[in-house]
Amino acid sequence: MCLAVPAQVVELLPDEIALVDTGGIRSHISVALLDDVQPGDYVIVHVGHAINKLDVEEAEKTLALFAELAEAIGESPDAVYPRVS
Amino acid sequence: MRYIREFRNGQAAAALAGKLAQEVDPRRSYHLMEFCGGHTHAIFRHGVQDLLPENVELVHGPGCPVCVLAIPRLDLAVELAERDDVILASYGDMLRVPASRKRSLVKARSRGSDVRVVTSATEAVRIAQENPENNVVFFAIGFETTTPPTALAILEASRLGLRNFTVYCNHVLTPSAIQSILDSPEVRSLGSVKVDGFIGPSHVSTVIGSRPYEYFAREYQKPVVISGFEPLDVLLSIRMLVDQLNSGRATVENQFLRGVTREGNLKAQRLVAEVFELRAEFEWRGLGNVPYSGLKIKDAYAAFDAERRFGLVARPVPENKACQCPAIIRGAKKPMDCKIFGTVCTPSNPIGSCMVSSEGACAAYYKYRHHRGLAEQPVSEKICRSPA
Fold first, then answer.
1. Which residues of B touch A33 (CB under 8 A)?
2. Interface pTM (ipTM) of the complex?
3. pTM of the full predicted structure?
């Protein structure tokens, strides 16, 4: 119920509607809950409404942290299937 | 999909799991409640539990709006749907949830009631525009994520001057539910439910912000980490919680920096405050009557309130004695503790709401764990536990 998905705004339409793209699937959503949405922005979509913007800079920072962790362990089988207990 | 797939990288997950294994203190245990049912399913679906050290236990919380809806409230929705002049518009999750006397919205529909599945409150407004001779009632459920779209629908109906559109409001609040868990006898005095910290819901928090959780961290000394829904998000959040517990801190930290700020979405909060106000108390399945935990429609929008339009009054009904949903919602029991789990109660024949919802704990155990459980059981158990 409270699950939302990231989508990229393709085009802004009248009545606070936007055309968005989620992994190649395009749909119309409402952007009435947000101010100042621009084409190219990523938004978080829930029940047909953008509930907030997705901060791409923060997302990239988090991903960079994960990439660093993944790189540090390399490709050893123990790393992919760690003995955690 | 951009910003989903990258957060499921197996190698990074293995690295995080490795770090976590080194960082946990073997002399203690960590009981972390994931509040949101969406997290429960993400954890099972991606096998996050298998990557955790043995002394890290995840406790499933009440954050499943379908599961926590009290049966008397659902009964009222079924009764609304059964009226000849009503079209009931509902999110799909609600249709198969069992009401009292074996009724449900889907059964009402099969007997001729007009029940329509919508994916957005705006669609319900459109149905009202297209059917001026019928009363269209939108069955509104959900936490703070789902409330702003309902507020928009009421404002839109008001702007359009629609007289045949009302909302049956069952919106509930996350912080009140967390408080109710922390104040419950099982956590406070009996000690049967251990909660050392919370994995907070990110999508609810995109709307309400991280500020509402600060009270719990401070007053109850329980760390909260607001976490995204992808497996790497959850693993990192667990690591952050373990770090807080190891160093004796209890603060609110935000792992979902890409979507949550301290203040949240102020415009959405303003719209919700324009249309809704707090109920003095609201009945939750599993938690009972919780003060200031639900929303109702303000007097200014009374014309759009289905409870007032149709004079709805909830009547108490007994719970099914065998169904353990109430205890499972509180985190006091696990689905496997329920005698009818996987035998009488299955996703195709659900007895309790936790087996129906795509966020319910029983549905998660059934879908992702049930068959593994079968393999570990003796043959006699296997036969009687096999789903029909």
1. 148-149, 152, 265, 267-268, 271
2. 0.88
3. 0.91
